[in-house]
User: Fold this.
Amino acid sequence: MDNVIRRRTPGARLARWSLYAVLIGMALFYLLPLVVMLLTSVKPLEEIRAGSLLALPQAPTLAPWVKAWSEACTGMRCEGVGGYFWNSFRIVIPAVAISTLLGALNGYALTKWRFRGADLIFALMLFGCFIPFQVVLLPMARTLGWLGLSTSTAGLVLVHVVFGIAFTTLFFRNFYVSIPNELVSAAKLDGAGFFRIFWRILLPISAPIFVVSVIWQFTQIWNDFLFGVAFSAFETQPVTVALNNLVNTSTGVKEYNVDMAAAMIAALPTLVVYVLAGKYFVRGLTAGSVKG
Amino acid sequence: MSALEIRQVRKDFGATRVLKDVSLSIDSGEFLILVGPSGCGKSTLMNAIAGLEPVTAGEILIAGEDVTWRTPAERDIAMVFQSYALYPSMTVRQNIAFGLEMRKVPKAEREAAVERVADLLQISPLLDRKPSQLSGGQRQRVAMGRALAREPKIYLFDEPLSNLDAKLRVEMRTEIKKLHQRLGTTIVYVTHDQIEAMTLADRIAVMRDGHILQLGTPEEVYNDPVDMFVAGFMGSPSMNFIQATLEGDAGAYRLAIETPESPRLVLPWPAARETPAMADAVGGRAVLGLRPEHFSEEDLRLGDRAEGTLLAAKVTVAEPTGADILLRLPLGDGEVTARVGPKASIAAGEWIELRVDMSRAVLFSPDSERRLA
Assistant:
């Protein structure tokens, strides 16, 4: 519901309509790459060569999608990106779950069981948000080697968890800071301990920030390329690396439609996550700042 | 044996000493109120009793047992918080039963306890609601219900009524008093509202800057304050402090008040209330403490009692409250508030003759602010 009183002069109306026109124009401009990708991915190669980027497909086909999924060559192999798509899930799901849960525990401990140096530790963890990935490539490779996790899925999960904790801790810490301490005091007097209070009192009210953390981590880890390319082998490569290989493998003609279909496949999970949970994402991001 | 004993408790936050060797002892079944302005340490003391804050030094004993280093759960205490602190994801029923559940009380007993408490506080229809669906007063009741479900050794109330509106606050105040009379529980209650303190307490501890200034019954604290702070803090409108000079000698002390226009006012100090300390203060300044109700319209309450000294003044403001009229009048170098009956039809600018009841007046030293007599 509109709850603002506006001036109703013709000039004001004109200004408002132009505002909307500009906004819609910008939205369309932002949507353009996606539209081009989608259109290209369902066109046969001849149409791509002949027509313009924005032309609608004359003979739509899903063949490029099928090829991208199961036949296209990614380097030496020609099995499509399908296998790597599942690889990504095998990395992303445990990494998101573990980093989010650890972030929640950290945030809880940093705000509700304050100890000497809690602020310093939080500041240091924040610092982790600003470390560029490239800086840690070599030390991380050594560490994974020592741990015997080189090129394994578990190793990649570990890397993503370590990097993700900084962000998830930040999210949960800022969320729990806004939860009254008296809630925890009351539970303490009622006889509940550290984990019981977390599990029974705080977790049930943490849904908004969980959504934020999960979306953030899912997007970050799913879209990661650098760690994926550095710390994986053929069998454990995530889909982003496979996509890169697919696009860079040239066997004669450049198949733009297959490239686009593969890129769409690689981008699809994050898109789905945003569409399903985007509403909660925005709500969760602002949850701490506004009461109610 | 006392239900709660606090011995020389000290609490530092960094370099700030919030509690300065506080000692206190509460009998079983007693209703003790900690009152004071914000920052006086009353909430810190409460948290120390609950075990939510470790103390820097000193001991806390509950029912004779040293609990200084026990966790809140081990102390067998229940607390009602200012924000109520109801668990948002649980129903009222689950909220009330949570403490029992944590203490592994069998389900049947938990349910019986919830029923008992719900009956007592008349919240049975609310049991399956979430806290967000309750009004402020209902939340307050649930918070009390949660404390009452267990039968702990001590109940702590941390400003439980300050989030309610004025009318509800008075109602709940009466209910808490009834509950205490009925259950005979030991209660420590923190408030900054001196009326709550006066109406509820068996004993009041007035705190300031981490000290207990005075510990006594509401009557003692009100009628016999140890210093100007306690005298000014308790009572509303607060006590009038009038600059005066102490004259005369034992048996016939007088207080002389300089008034700008009229001749100076001399009030005889009742011989029955003389103290040895007054002898040293003769000739010096003293602060006379008079509560608004120590003034009364001529011939209405005091008749011709000897202590009553007549005073005529021009009213600057008249504030009818319905039950009384509060008058502001010039006296000495300042203004005082007098409370007169509602029948006195007085308007600003009019002259009134008031009698001062010196038998209840108190006298302070202006330097130390402590009682002279």
